[in-house]
Structure formats: C-alpha cells, structure tokens
Design goal:
The protein is built from 2 helices and 6 strands, in the order ααββββββ. The chain is an alpha+beta fold and about 200 residues long. A 3-stranded antiparallel β-sheet has the order 1-4-5. A 3-stranded mixed β-sheet has the order 2-6-3, with no helix packed on it. β4 and β5 form a beta hairpin. It is elongated and about 105 Å long.
Amino acid sequence: MTTPPPVPQPGEPSVPHLAEPTAPPPDPRPGLGPVPAPPATAPGSDPFAVVADAVDGMRDELAALGDQFRRRLLNDREARRSLDGLLTELDQARKTAEGRIVQPLLYDLVLLVDRVERQAAQGDAFAGSVAAELLAVLEKYSMTRIPVTRGPFNPDLQEAVGTSTALSPEQNGQIAEVVRHGYRMDERIVRPQQVRVYTER
C-alpha cells in the first residue's frame, strides 16, 4: 500500500508530486545481457526491390561489356582480314617484280643448260656436272624442269613439234619422245616441253 501525498496547509507552497522510481523489467535471458533492439528500417523500403535493382544494374553492365567485346572482336577480324589481303597483294607484287627482272635471266640460263647438256650427251663428263650445277641454281629461284612422263599429250604443259607413226591404235595421241625440256616457275609455264606425238598414218 502506498502513502498518499501530503496535503499542503494554507500558506505553504505546493510541491509537485514525484512518482516513485520503477525498476526495469526483468531480463528474459538472464546472464546474456540486454536484448538488442531490432534494426530500424526506413519507412517504405523493400529489401527485395533493392536486390532486384542491383541485379538489373549488373545485367546492364554485363550486356554493355558483351557488346564492347563483340565490337572489339569484329574490329580485330576486319584488321586481320585487311592485313592478310595486304600481305597477299605484296606477295603477288613481289612475284610479278621477280618475274619481270629475274625470269629473263633465268631463261637465258635455261638456254645455257640446253647447250651444256648437248655437250654432255657426247660423253663430256665435265659438261654433265656443269649442267647439274646450273639446274640447282635454277631450282633455287623456283625454276624447275617439267618432269618427263609417258602418256597422252598435254597441251597445257607440252608443245608438239613432230610426230611419229603409232604402232597400235592405243599409241595414238601418246608421247613418243621429248625433244626439249620444259620449265615452269612456280605454277607459271616459262617454256613448254617440246615433244613428238604418236599419230596414225
């Protein structure tokens, strides 16, 4: 039971009544300290909306990076294609220049090989060795001799300069003899192979 506040007497100043102090509520978790207050949440904020906005921002950034990478890749491909085209043109120009300057000299060397081989055919061993060395020089500059083959006449590689009588119908149109060797420079025929061809009389 509480004691009622004193009633002031006439002439005494009134003193405001002070409430008795109250004890804090007992801790529901003894020995664990005070209960932490729940975190304050801004009014109207939605954590799921914040996460969704962050994901959308990352998605837009990744899309921009993907577009930048694709543009860079296309630019690199175009640059590589242009470089390859330039290298091809330079190689063709080099071959054309070599053909204009070197090919006439090599053709003169081929004529020299013809003369030396005719000398070697008469039993001159020294001429034979010189002819072999000249052929090695020609091959160094991509001037190669067209191989001697037995078969049908090939107008792309050969030039018919004579005929021989075919001994059978199967020989008609076949190569009878190589009269003079032919030469090519890479894929270009510098001098066709001169041959005699079997024909029916």
